[in-house]
């Protein structure tokens, strides 16, 4: 529903809500940690956002694409006028009609997304969420209190450190909202990747210095504070790059005929590897110790190279016209047929961008 020039910022509102939720959860845990019934509050208060989602869904409007797919052309046009705030939507609406008709000619999304011409979409929808989890962010967000306690922080200090990283997470996500449609997706991906690599290597060096390969030792307060700062540096890098963009990019590259399948793959891969990383982190930390941070740093090197070579810039490109971007790419262009649909309004926008 978002206009192309604001799609990145509005989409990242989703990630902003997640980071605020993480921060609020950390504050709740810190507030009730000393109470015998504190765990009940931590679990029970999760019902609050659940109620908000349920009530909000009652007032959530349908998208013009969805209305068109059900055959209500005039209703779809009125909805597009409403969300754009103007009656001048003829060109964009024609693009939506063309995309809807193309999607309706497809027999099944799952068989369609496996065809060669959708190879770039399939690869991005699988690899981006996969890489997102192998940045190592969830081991920080899930186990921050445990990790900080291991590094020498007390119980309360560990919980407060988790709150601090949560604040950094929110602030950096807000920066991403401001920058994503100005600087583009690739710039944030690449800068964030380099910053995460540096942070993780330095954290590994600090832990190796204090605990060695045996995992036995004591970290001074000054070194513990430095590790906290480095972890915040790492969280900030993730929060304005792989955090929001890991959801944004797969959501904006798929044409209508495979959009549901592409999003399903994106979410399924993300959740599957969230579960896997969450289950094995503590075991990996016990066995690999400081090497765990080097393990994730190596993965960030791989994904940063992947972004550099295989992800084209998608800012300000209407979703219905994303094939233009793929067709010009040095590698993915071989999969995009010459008869890919190019909408009138969107083609004009792309030519203006190129000029």
Automatic annotation (TrEMBL):
<keyword id="KW-0472">Membrane</keyword>
<feature type="transmembrane region" description="Helical">
    <location>
        <begin position="264"/>
        <end position="284"/>
    </location>
</feature>
<dbReference type="InterPro" id="IPR036259">
    <property type="entry name" value="MFS_trans_sf"/>
</dbReference>
<dbReference type="Pfam" id="PF00083">
    <property type="entry name" value="Sugar_tr"/>
</dbReference>
<comment type="similarity">
    <text>Belongs to the major facilitator superfamily. Sugar transporter (TC 2.A.1.1) family.</text>
</comment>
<feature type="transmembrane region" description="Helical">
    <location>
        <begin position="290"/>
        <end position="311"/>
    </location>
</feature>
<dbReference type="InterPro" id="IPR044778">
    <property type="entry name" value="MFS_STP/MST-like_plant"/>
</dbReference>
<dbReference type="GO" id="GO:0016020">
    <property type="term" value="C:membrane"/>
</dbReference>
<feature type="transmembrane region" description="Helical">
    <location>
        <begin position="158"/>
        <end position="180"/>
    </location>
</feature>
<keyword id="KW-0812">Transmembrane</keyword>
<keyword id="KW-1133">Transmembrane helix</keyword>
<dbReference type="InterPro" id="IPR020846">
    <property type="entry name" value="MFS_dom"/>
</dbReference>
<keyword id="KW-0769">Symport</keyword>
<keyword id="KW-0762">Sugar transport</keyword>
<feature type="transmembrane region" description="Helical">
    <location>
        <begin position="122"/>
        <end position="146"/>
    </location>
</feature>
<dbReference type="InterPro" id="IPR003663">
    <property type="entry name" value="Sugar/inositol_transpt"/>
</dbReference>
<dbReference type="InterPro" id="IPR045262">
    <property type="entry name" value="STP/PLT_plant"/>
</dbReference>
<protein>
    <recommendedName>
        <fullName>Major facilitator superfamily (MFS) profile domain-containing protein</fullName>
    </recommendedName>
</protein>
<feature type="transmembrane region" description="Helical">
    <location>
        <begin position="39"/>
        <end position="60"/>
    </location>
</feature>
<keyword id="KW-0813">Transport</keyword>
<feature type="transmembrane region" description="Helical">
    <location>
        <begin position="12"/>
        <end position="33"/>
    </location>
</feature>
<dbReference type="GO" id="GO:0015293">
    <property type="term" value="F:symporter activity"/>
</dbReference>
<feature type="transmembrane region" description="Helical">
    <location>
        <begin position="224"/>
        <end position="243"/>
    </location>
</feature>
<dbReference type="GO" id="GO:0015145">
    <property type="term" value="F:monosaccharide transmembrane transporter activity"/>
</dbReference>
<dbReference type="InterPro" id="IPR005829">
    <property type="entry name" value="Sugar_transporter_CS"/>
</dbReference>
<dbReference type="InterPro" id="IPR005828">
    <property type="entry name" value="MFS_sugar_transport-like"/>
</dbReference>
<feature type="domain" description="Major facilitator superfamily (MFS) profile">
    <location>
        <begin position="1"/>
        <end position="315"/>
    </location>
</feature>
């Amino acid at each position: 529903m978002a206009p192309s020039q604001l799609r990145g910022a509005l989409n990242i509102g989703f990630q902003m809500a997640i980071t605020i939720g993480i921060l609020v959860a950390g504050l709740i845990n810190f507030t009730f940690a000393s109470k015998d019934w504190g765990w009940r509050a931590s679990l029970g208060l999760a019902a609050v956002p659940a109620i908000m989602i349920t009530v909000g869904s009652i007032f959530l409007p349908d998208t013009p694409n969805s209305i068109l797919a059900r055959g209500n052309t005039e209703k779809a046009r009125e909805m597009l006028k409403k969300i754009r705030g103007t009656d001048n939507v003829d060109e964009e609406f024609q693009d939506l009609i063309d995309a809807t008709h193309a999607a309706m000619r497809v027999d099944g999304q799952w068989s369609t997304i496996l065809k060669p011409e959708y190879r770039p979409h399939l690869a991005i929808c699988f690899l981006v969420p996969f890489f997102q989890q192998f940045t190592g962010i969830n081991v920080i967000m899930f186990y921050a209190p445990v990790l900080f306690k291991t590094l020498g922080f007390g119980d309360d200090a560990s919980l407060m450190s988790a709150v601090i990283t949560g604040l950094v997470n929110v602030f950096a996500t807000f920066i991403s909202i401001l920058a994503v449609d100005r600087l583009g997706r690739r710039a944030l991906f690449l800068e964030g990747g380099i910053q995460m690599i540096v942070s993780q290597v330095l954290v590994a060096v600090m832990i190796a210095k204090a605990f060695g390969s045996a995992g036995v030792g004591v970290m001074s307060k000054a070194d513990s504070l430095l590790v906290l700062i480095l972890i915040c540096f790492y969280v900030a890098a993730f929060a304005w790059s792989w955090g929001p963009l890991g959801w944004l990019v797969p959501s904006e590259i798929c044409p209508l005929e495979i959009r549901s399948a592409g999003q399903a793959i994106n979410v399924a891969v993300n959740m599957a590897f969230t579960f896997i990383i969450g289950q094995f982190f503590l075991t990996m930390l016990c066995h690999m110790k400081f090497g765990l941070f080097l393990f994730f740093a190596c993965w960030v090197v791989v994904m940063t190279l992947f972004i550099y070579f295989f992800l084209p810039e998608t800012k300000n490109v209407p979703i219905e016209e994303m094939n233009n971007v793929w067709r010009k790419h040095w590698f993915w262009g071989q999969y995009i047929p010459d008869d890919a649909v190019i909408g009138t309004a969107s083609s004009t926008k792309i030519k203006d961008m190129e000029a």
